[in-house]
Design brief:
Alpha-Beta Plaits, 38% helix, four-stranded antiparallel sheet, alpha+beta, 4 strands, 3 helices, globular
C-alpha cells in the first residue's frame, strides 16, 4: 500500500470555498476510485487555514489512476485558486505499520 500525505496552507478568505472543494475531492476519490482505500482531511487545531490530507492507495497504479481521474483536474484548479503558492508539501511512502480502532470517526 502507498500512502500520500499532503500538507498546505489555504489563502485567507478562501476557507469556505476550499472546504467545499476538498470535500468533493475526498468523496470522489474514495467512491470513484477502487484503489483509493482511505482519504482523510485534517484541519489544524491552531491554524484553521492549514490542512493535511492523508490518503491510502492499494498500489502505484492506484496513485496513477487517482492523478488521471477527471475529478483530479477539477481539484488541481481548486488548488491553484485556494492554496497558498509554495506551501504544499507532498510525501509518497509505503505503509509499513498500521493500527486502527473499529470506530473511524
Amino acid at each position: 500500500m502507498i500512502s500520500l500525505t499532503v500538507s498546505f496552507q489555504v489563502v485567507p478568505g478562501h476557507l469556505d470555498k476550499f472546504v467545499d472543494a476538498i470535500r468533493t475531492q475526498a468523496e470522489r476519490s474514495f467512491t470513484d476510485e477502487p484503489g483509493c482505500l482511505y482519504f482523510d482531511v485534517s484541519q489544524d487545531t491552531v491554524d484553521d487555514h492549514h490542512f493535511t490530507l492523508y490518503e491510502l492507495y492499494a498500489d502505484e497504479e492506484a496513485i496513477e489512476a487517482h492523478r488521471s481521474a477527471p475529478h483530479f483536474k477539477v481539484w488541481r484548479a481548486a488548488v491553484a485558486e485556494h492554496v497558498v503558492p509554495g506551501s504544499q508539501a507532498t510525501t509518497l511512502a509505503r505503509r509499513l505499520i498500521h493500527h486502527a480502532s473499529e470506530d473511524n470517526s
